Amino acid sequence: MRRMRIAILFTIMFGFWIVLSEKFTPLALTLGVLSAAASTWLGARLAEAVIGDAAHHTRVNVFWLVIYVVWLLGRMTSGAIQVARIVLDPRSTPRPGVMTFTTQLRSPAARTLLANSITLVPGTITLEVDGDELTVHSFTPSSVDDLVDAQMQNRIAAVFREPDQPRPRLDWEFGEAPSDRDPESFEGFDTEARP
Fold it and tell me: How many CA atoms lie within 13 A of 8 on its CB side?
């Protein structure tokens, strides 16, 4: 399993080098191999330190990973449009806030994907990950709808072959709580905004 991870990482790094250099001279290819080998050596060690040994975590479901990437690209696009609309419309005002929630994703790789996915969607950024607790800054309350209803967590759970995730308990600080809707619709949600 470790050899497969290293081979895949090397292939990605070398392919990235070729795409960026756009040269196929012996010097460029040699430098590409050396650069990819060094990056793979460092990257493999870092991956094992962060997400664990390849033998100790579940395999990724490639079908659900592709579905997730397509869904995430859609969320990135809609998030960018939403943020642009708020920024460009003088009548709209952002309602930023910070929320903390606990995820039940077991795999460190799944939690890493969740934190990075939150940051990739415009209007949200992961501020801190402490074990299974994530702190997220949101430009508007509606930016975190995918987290409130556990849609993002469930899609990641499918990728890592984990069980469905329950809706998390969210603690919202500053500004308004993410609820233009009925506060009862958020199970265990603290709708009191804190100064």
Answer: 8
